[in-house]
Design goal:
five-stranded antiparallel beta sheet; alpha+beta; eight-stranded antiparallel beta sheet; Uncharacterised_YfhO; about 850 residues; YfhO family protein; 3 domains; transmembrane
């Protein structure tokens, strides 16, 4: 089969495999998941595309509170060759006026076409690799279709689009390994290994585990005469692998650094060795075994073929891994079990089928009959064991395709030369039909993709005209590019990216650990929803808004009780209102009073806030430091009573649908302000989330078994001044203790806002920030509301200076007398030395590959 025909066939199969989603696209529904698809995939693509078009690759002030996107989004798209190529194509289409603004709606609409192109590439690549191994073009192409058109491809592409990129690199890794084993040529292995390491470190980990297993199997099963000795192979694999790591350094090192400096609680649940509940013949959401594979598995004469023996053995091993939560944990970095590695099983199944088809004439009649009976018994057993309703179209189709495959095989034995193509067609048809059935019943109807429509994506629930118009009015009124607005549309933490403003929230699997610690541990900021991989809002705490340049707060008109202290309404629409902070502090703030962070261990959050307002909190500062402010804990002068509940020895038992613990301060001051109520709260239920309500403030807590639970049970809730504070919980038993109650009258905030600061000249361009500031009062420090992370470089008046971690998670540095010409630049951690390693490794690779090509080289 010529390459042109192979490309055309791959594209045709890909289009047919997307038939359901193409029909949905025509009706205004899109191939994007309602969860992470809408919350992350299309949002990050919008943000990164806009950055790339501006020539900005490293930092984004609008990503949450600001962050290095090269490192923190390397898990997604920031270093993905496929996304960069897609972005280039989209830009060309824009230049020739065939595409409009690349917003979230655009990326949702484009998803099915991007998927078609990607799947075509996967099939084409896999077909080429399998042809090299099985020496049969038609069989290799059929196997490649089974690999590409597997249900795990569509599951991953719909929900977590970047997951499927690795399905391109996996066959290339196998090809590279074979080129070393058979021909002593390392170029393909070096290239494939480098590509997988650069594009996604997480799936590179899975791919490299697999290729290690593959090489071990190859050492046991020799496919050709003349393969080089194992020791020589080992040396070449080690050298090639090291060169690949070196080539990938510029992307791999900063991204892995970001991963290692994320903050996520370790998984503490029990992991079973085996769980056989999934039905991989009928109803699995991850992998469905092709009927042809099961038939070949029991055609024992095929085992005389070494290629079949290799891939069948690998397939059986990975089927066992699929049934092992412990293996799923290993593939997920020894964390919570995640079944994301089954694309590897799809490839080994494809290899086994391709090898079997290439030896189809060797299967005897009796073997075929026996294999058919055994396969039918397997399907019958699975149907009865799981109590499936075979009248459902999805299950009926599986049975019909099984018998159709068996019939095609028997026909091929009668007239092999004429009927081999019929077998191929039946297998391809089966794969395409199962893929479309899966798209309809599992992804669209069962997984919620049918709700992702043009109507929804332009509605008030996602990105509506009313909210966009109100934000545009605000941005026209205040053109300050650094001002922050706090608003989240529902529970979508990446709302600021979607709407194009600087916000206070972010949702990503990898985030700045300093910021997460700031929320969870240092300041105990409740986000309204307990969950890892995200942060949101400031819990209504006015001090923090002012410190972090939070000038505006937007909310539904029905939620005005949670407007922070000192914010006044300045504009509104039908359903929303915007409030302005009357005590906002300058972006560039000086500090004369210096506090040592360790002196605040065990201090309440309000004490830390007031210290940050008065000066700066530094880790291990030199010179004179101030003592932490002192506050009066009102809890010992408050009455605590239970309603519809019993409270004893730190345990609250709620007997009715809801119960309350009521705290009544005896003698609070008459000044306006807030209370800061802190307590420890943990449900005694094994597996049940719950809602906590403190007066008008509502937040949710995860089940104790949830893998997304933060593990932080110490809460601080800001409550507007009132006579009583009511903690309301649903029916159940809770550990509720360690109460503290402090009063905030905001005198410290007002004093900080009234302090006269010299105006600073600020210019932020891409990853570089230039500030000119006159330090007339000879303050010791300057601090900025920019998150501290490795990668920031600082010069003041042309001389390098250290960047310090200030106020727990932000940037601070020593100020100079008089004029301070401040130059801050952000580069991904270790990017410069890593880029040098990449360049050197590329040179070494060229030398090593050329040396291996020389006749007689060893």
């Amino acid at each position: 089969m010529k390459k042109a025909y192979l490309i055309a066939a791959s594209l045709l199969i890909s289009i047919c495999a997307h038939a359901f989603f193409l029909k949905e696209w025509a009706e205004g529904r899109y191939m994007t998941g309602p969860g992470d698809g809408l919350a992350q995939m299309i949002v990050f693509k919008k943000m990164l595309f806009e950055q790339y078009m501006q020539g900005n690759f490293f930092y984004n002030y609008s990503f949450g509170l600001g962050g290095g996107v090269y490192s923190q989004l390397g898990y997604y798209f920031s270093v993905s060759f496929l996304f960069i190529l897609t972005s280039a194509v989209v830009r060309i289409l824009q230049l020739v006026h065939l595409a409009g603004e690349a917003d979230t709606l655009f990326w949702a609409q484009a998803a099915v076409f991007i998927s078609i192109a990607k799947l075509s590439l996967i099939i084409f690549t896999a077909a080429g690799v399998l042809r090299y191994i099985v020496k049969h073009t038609g069989a290799a192409f059929v196997g490649a279709v089974l690999y590409g058109v597997s249900i795990i491809y569509f599951r991953h592409e719909a929900y977590w689009e970047f997951f499927t990129d690795t399905m391109i690199w996996l066959p290339l890794l196998v090809y590279g390994a074979e080129k070393i084993i058979r021909e002593r040529r390392p170029a393909w292995f070096i290239a494939a290994c480098a590509l997988t390491l650069i594009n996604n470190f997480y799936f590179a980990y899975m791919n490299l585990i697999f290729i290690g297993i593959y090489i071990l199997f190859r050492w046991l099963i020799r496919l050709e005469e003349g393969e080089i000795k194992k020791l020589a192979q080992f040396k070449m694999f080690m050298i090639s692998g090291l060169i690949s790591f070196g080539i990938s350094a510029a992307a791999f090192v900063p991204v892995v650094y970001g991963y290692l400096h994320n903050l996520r609680p370790p998984y503490s649940g029990q992991i079973e060795w085996f769980d056989f509940s999934d039905n991989i013949l009928f109803s699995s959401r991850i992998i469905v075994l092709p009927a042809i594979f099961l038939l070949f598995l029991f055609a024992f004469s095929l085992y005389r073929n070494r290629v079949f023996r290799l891939f069948a053995g690998l397939s059986v091993l990975f089927i066992m891994f699929h049934y092992s939560p412990y293996a799923a944990s290993v593939f997920n970095g020894f964390s919570a079990p995640q079944y994301r590695f089954e694309y590897v099983l799809s490839f080994t199944l494809a290899g086994a089928v391709a090898a079997g088809l290439s030896q189809l004439s060797e299967i005897r009649w009796k073997e075929m009959l026996g294999a058919s009976v055994i396969a039918i018994l397997f399907y019958w057993y699975n149907e009865h064991r799981h109590g499936l309703d075979l009248t459902k179209p999805a299950y009926t189709s599986v049975i019909l395709l099984l018998f159709l495959t068996i019939a095609a095989l028997f026909v091929s034995k009668l007239t092999f030369k004429k009927s081999r193509l019929t077998v191929y067609a039946v297998i391809i048809l089966s794969a395409v039909l199962i893929a479309n059935i899966y798209q309809k019943y599992v992804l669209s109807e069962g997984g919620g993709l049918q709700t992702v429509s043009n109507t929804y994506l332009t509605s008030r629930e996602y990105k509506g005209e009313e909210q966009m118009e109100l934000i545009s009015r605000l941005q026209s009124k205040d053109t300050n590019p650094l001002a922050r607005l706090d608003w989240m549309n529902g529970v979508r933490n990446n709302t600021p990216i979607m709407y194009g403003f600087n916000g206070f929230s972010a949702y990503s699997s990898i985030l700045n650990q300093n910021l997460l610690s700031f929320y969870w541990n240092d300041l105990n900021i409740d986000m309204g929803r307990e969950s890892v991989s995200r942060y949101a809002s400031m819990g209504g705490r006015a001090n923090l808004y002012s410190l972090l340049y939070g000038k505006y707060f937007m909310t539904e008109k029905t939620n005005t009780a949670n407007v922070p202290y000192g914010f006044t309404k300045i504009m509104e629409s039908k359903h929303y209102a915007v409030y302005q902070n009357q005590h906002v502090l300058p972006f560039v703030k000086t500090a004369g009073q210096v506090y040592n962070e360790t002196d605040f261990d065990g201090s309440p959050a309000l004490v830390k806030e007031q210290a940050m307002l008065r000066g700066i909190v530094i880790k291990d500062p030199s010179g004179k430091t101030e003592k932490p402010p002192k506050l009066n804990n009102l809890i010992s002068h408050s009455n605590i009573t239970a309603k519809h509940a019993e409270y004893k020895n730190g345990q609250l038992t709620v007997m009715e649908s809801t119960g309350q613990l009521i705290i009544t301060p005896e003698s609070p001051s008459k000044q306006p302000g807030d209370y800061y109520l802190s307590f420890y709260l943990k449900s005694k239920a094994k597996d049940k989330g719950f809602t906590l309500k403190v007066n008008d403030y509502v937040t949710t807590r995860k089940s104790n078994k949830s893998i997304y639970k933060t593990g932080v049970n110490d809460l601080t809730i800001r409550v507007p001044k009132t006579n009583q504070i009511t903690i309301e919980l649903p029916k159940g038993t809770y550990e509720l203790k360690r109460f503290t109650l402090y009063e905030e009258t905001y005198q410290t905030l007002k004093a900080a806002a009234e302090k006269e600061e010299q105006p600073a000249k600020i210019d932020w361009n891409k990853n570089k920030l230039n500030i000119t500031y006159q330090n007339k009062e000879n303050a010791r420090y300057i601090k900025l509301p920019i998150p501290y992370e490795k990668g920031w470089e600082l010069k003041i008046n042309g001389k390098k200076q250290p960047v310090e971690q200030a106020d727990y998670s932000f940037i601070g540095f020593r100020a100079q007398k008089g004029e301070n010409r401040i130059e801050l630049a952000y580069y991904p951690p270790y990017f410069k030395p890593a880029a040098a390693v990449t360049l050197v490794s590329l040179a070494i690779a060229c030398f090593y590959i050329r040396k291996r090509k020389k006749p007689g080289s060893k």
